[in-house]
Amino acid sequence: MTAMNTTEKTGVQRRTSMGLTVDCFPFSKRPKTAFEFLEYSYSLGAGGVEAPLGSLDADNMRRIRQRVETLGMYLEPWATLPKGDASAFEQTVRAAKEAGARCLRAFCLGGRRYEVFQDMAQWKQFVAESRASLQMALPVLERHKMVLGLENHKDWTLEEMLALMREFGGQYLGVCLDTGNNIALLDDTIELTERLAPYTVSVHLKDIAGAEYEEGFLNVEVPLGQGMLDVKRIVDTIRRVRPQVKFTLEMMTRSPLKIPCLSPGYWATFPDRMGYALARTLRTIRQNPPRRPLPEVEKLEPAARLQLEEDNVRECILYAKQHLDL
User: Is 316 among the domain residues?
Assistant: First the structure.
């Protein structure tokens, strides 16, 4: 019996190796902890999940591990970097190990750099605190032999992230490479990918559409293949350097974010950012107009939001299988 006939008979479609993050579902009441989200992601045909672990008790970790192994999926839980005391962080690392996680994901800044900090003094304090957190986290990761991916979370520019990796990166600390975030910091996505690929331990895969507005540009996730990123080149670049890395979709259905790069306040913490970066980014936006109107999700009825959210994820899964060999 051919593979196609088997598929037709059983109704089972080829699964994607690409996983899903819970951030793909900002509107729905989908399960938000690892065990439940594994089940939902599996039903959509995904290959893994990035999600909070939930309760860290040993029974729950064993239950998660058993389900991960039974479903043949991967798990990349969230972690919060330590501040002052590493005990909570170590508890998460230990639990992730027991749950069979392949790596953890964390970030230094929960907000957006150009919105959070008003001056360089605030930024420098954040940098010092972040370095202290990484110094505290490293011995814990090494002790438990657990890998952590630090996300470029609209905080560090490419050069700053490279500096962090040169100082702290190694066997147990690398990059969770988000393919869209650094556009907001005026970095080029292909350059970002090529230079961070050697440090990459996990990936947030997304495509981005944009358009200009009076103070800069708009930026929003769109289904893979429908934006301005060369997603195939990005995936191939990372795979060539880090073939074991997993790709996790972060298709966040939302209205566009405003990147006010033409306003003075945006530049408060970028004294060395050159005009070339601004010109390059705006040129890219102009040369890649959105294929369809940018979504205005807040204007949709709740039921329509939920449907759009799931449709976007399903489109991405199909694209990953058909065009990205994922």
Answer: yes
Per the listing, tokens 């008790």 go with 57
CA distance 67 to 275: 50
In 223-256, which positions are buried (b, 16+ CB within 10 angstroms) versus exposed (e)? bbbbbbbebeebbebbbeebeebbbbbbbbbbeb
Sheet holding 19-21, edge to edge: 74-75, 48-50, 19-21, 246-249, 200-205, 173-178, 148-151, 104-106
Give 3-state DSSP helix, strand, coil % of the chain, rounded to 5.
50, 15, 35
Tell me if residue 318 falls in helix, strand or coil.
Answer: helix
Look up residue 272 and give its two tokens: 């060395």
pLDDT digits (tens, 9 = 90+) for 281-317: 999 999 999 999 999 999 999 999 999 999 999 999 9
Residue 121: count other Cβ atoms within 10 Å of its Cβ.
10
**What does the alpha-carbon distance between residue 187 and residue 277 come to, in Å, rounded to a whole number?**
7
Structural domain containing residue 232: 15-208+221-256+296-323
Measured distance CA(321)–CA(107) in Å, rounded = 29
Domain harbouring 105, CATH code: 3.20.20.150
Tokens representing residue 199 in the block: 């440090």
**Class of residue 294 by CB neighbours under 10 A (exposed 0-12, middle 13-18, buried 19+):** middle
Q: For residue 21, how many C-alpha atoms fall within 13 Å in the half-sphere facing its CB?
A: 23
277 domain-assigned: no
User: How far apart, in whole angstroms, are the C-alpha atoms of residue 230 and residue 240?
Assistant: 16
262: which 2 tokens?
């033409």
Q: How confident is the model at residue 323 (pLDDT cuts 50, 70, 90)?
A: very high
Task: Transcribe 110-122 into DSSP letters.
Answer: SS-HHHH-SSHHH
**Per-residue pLDDT averaged across 87-92, rounded?**
98
Partners of residue 83 on adjacent β-strands: 85
**In this structure, what are the phi and psi dihedrals at residue 209, rounded to the nearest 5 degrees?**
-115, 155
Q: Structurally, how many domains does the chain consist of?
A: 1
